Amino acid sequence: MRRLLKLAMAAALTLLPATAVFAQTEITWWDFLSGGDGVRMKALIQKFNDTHPDIKINATTLEWGVPFYTKVQTAAAVGQQPDIMTYHISRYPLAVPTGILRPFTADELSAAGIKKENYVDAAWNSASADGKTYGIPFDVHSIILYYNKDVLKQAGLLGDDGLPKGLDGLDNFNAVLGKIKALGKVEYPLSINSDQGASIWRIFYTLVAQQGAKFMDGKEIMPGDSSLKALDVITNWIKSGYSPQLVSYEASIALFTSGKAAMHINGVWEVPTMVDLEKKGQLGFHWGAIEIPNLMGQQATWVDSHSFAIPASTVKPISEDKVKVVLEVIRWMNENSISWASAGHIPAYKPVTASADFKNMQPNAVYSKLADTAVYDPISPLAGVAGPIYEAAQNFIIPAINGQLDPKDAIDQMREELQGQQ
């Protein structure tokens, strides 16, 4: 009996190390990613879980925009926040002053092998404030110019490299629009989403930035005449019949994909739409995409970024051990972000964009240079996804470009409204 007892105890002790090896750290993950982004992120999470038996990511997808950010704040207040979340960098100026983001220390980042020099400068800097790093960028996403190669070739506007030519400079660009319209092969030279403030804000802000101007300078909103000039550009496109009035997001895409518009301004996130239609033989023409041309004198493009961050909670702060695991997750996600690039995004992790795989990814590799001249939303609580500026664009810029409000009155009223919210 004693011999059997000793053997049983020895067997139990032998099993202990193996049991310890397979102990899992569970990480609670929240994101707001739907559609193609959601599919790709779920695949990344599954791959991570499959290759890391000691870590399990339990992921939940919540509603994009204000509902997501409100949920995070409410959850952190009662100590029920996730360990890691996706967060738009444009929301950092609103989030940082409220204390909702837990900063990473230099020692934590160093121990995880996360180095600033490996990330797009503008993205990393925009995720930092007051010398602290509040999040790690995952991508750079922006608006780009989609174009129908067949129509542009017929108009003599396509180079031997398959890229448009003669688009830089506002006068040149407008002349191109006129030439395409006169060609009579399409209904419209240009398609834009002209009934939604968020879409128009991205174009409007790009045109402001291309003048080397600021939308906000300290507490002053829309100083000088750069905002009015930007608004006049978009208004003219619609007034001249280059682009139709009050077109919904979905309809603006359909105008391009059906061949009724020669060019289309939209986010990089619609690249998979074009790729899928082309693969199915449903596009009907050859297409490409480039960064928004330099129309106003200085190359610049509105951008935002998805990033990874940790919510701060005084009720139930995250442990140091979990922070280490979260940073391991973040590092792995960025190192494996080539699949995320297939959604049209530009990886924020430079070693990925420098890879042969990315350089062979078209048209992403063509427009990825826009990351070097990226311009994020103003550093203000008024800015960012679903913030007051987006609402003001809906209330004033949309009516102006569609001929329902005088452009100067629109700028004056927009300035007054935002000034009152500071």
From TrEMBL:
<feature type="signal peptide">
    <location>
        <begin position="1"/>
        <end position="23"/>
    </location>
</feature>
<dbReference type="InterPro" id="IPR006059">
    <property type="entry name" value="SBP"/>
</dbReference>
<dbReference type="InterPro" id="IPR050490">
    <property type="entry name" value="Bact_solute-bd_prot1"/>
</dbReference>
<comment type="similarity">
    <text>Belongs to the bacterial solute-binding protein 1 family.</text>
</comment>
<dbReference type="Pfam" id="PF13416">
    <property type="entry name" value="SBP_bac_8"/>
</dbReference>
<keyword id="KW-0574">Periplasm</keyword>
<protein>
    <submittedName>
        <fullName>ABC transporter substrate-binding protein</fullName>
    </submittedName>
</protein>
<keyword id="KW-0732">Signal</keyword>
